[in-house]
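Per reviewer request, we include the raw input and output of the structure prediction for the construct analysed in the revised manuscript.
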Amino acid sequence: MRIFFIFSFIVVSILFQGCFSKEVKVEKVNIVYPSFPDEPRIQYLETYRGENNEKVELNTLDIILGESIENKSKNPLIVKPYGVTIDNGKLYAVDTATKMIFVIDEKTKDVSFIGDGLSGPVGIAFDSKGFAYISDTRRKAVMVYNEKGKLLTAIGSRLEFAQPTGIAIDKKLNRLYVADTKGHKIKVFDIETKKMLLEIGKRGHADGEFNFPTNVAIDSRNNNLIVSDTQNFRVQIFDKDGKFIRTFGKVGTRPGEFTRPKGIGVDSEGHIYVTDSAFNNVQVFDDKGTLLLYFGGAGYVKPGTFRLISGLYIDENDKIIIADGFTGRIQTFQYLSEKWKLSNPEKYKELSGLNGKINKEEMRIKKELEKELYNEAENK
């Protein structure tokens, strides 16, 4: 009787799939922020999930037998990414769940791994020699690997760190900056000697003080240090010697305010990007703290949406890398800087609609088709 029921269920399911399944053909749409007709500033590029971006689907029999995507996948998938970066054409993502560092070749999409000996990896950065620095909250140190992924040494110890998390490297000054979250300080090390140069801040709410800082970034124009002061719900800016310059932000739910600021980055023009894991978006400010725009929102499938957004990194070409913690996705974007516009005039015309190929009615239709496609994907 049970076998007959299962067989009948399979047959009926297949028949229903044949009757109701449909293909929605959508012309490739460039996703930009803000959307047309406003001038585009940010372009969505692509999403990475793990080895070879494998897409695993379950059929009816898999569901009946209790199969899962994780079990059916032959390749490791990113589970809970946090720290992200790019070096020499490869994207690096720290998976805090599997304790693995995914290395994704941006051209071939091939995936490899580094990070032997890690216990609690969180942040990642590269120096000018191509050496990887990975913060490890359990080892309470920053582990250093050469270009072949071999462990070389460790910076810091249990006596120096309470909880090392977000890190950044100033390649001009040859300095490593580490957010010691539970120590409520930013610690600065010399890359060559591996010795600590200075400590910035202490626990508190005044200017220059921290309450669980989580991530750091460097403004390449002036070597300023930018800090995500998470439990003070603000961003703080210091000069290269650790002198306080300014702060912006406060707790709240309105644009320009923060609830859980996490990842932070700076583009080539000095704009500061801050992820907020409560809002699941990215807010973009000028270097004085004025809000310019924000993008993102809660979602599991649609490009440009996030669920438990975390780490963020911006490379020298203004490519933006964002870790989406709950969905296991790494999403990439491009800031359309003035330099980028000069190098890509035709692409910019296409994105902005200046070539006459985009009009409001066409955009309305495309958005409806996109919404239908994404709703169908989320319901699978």
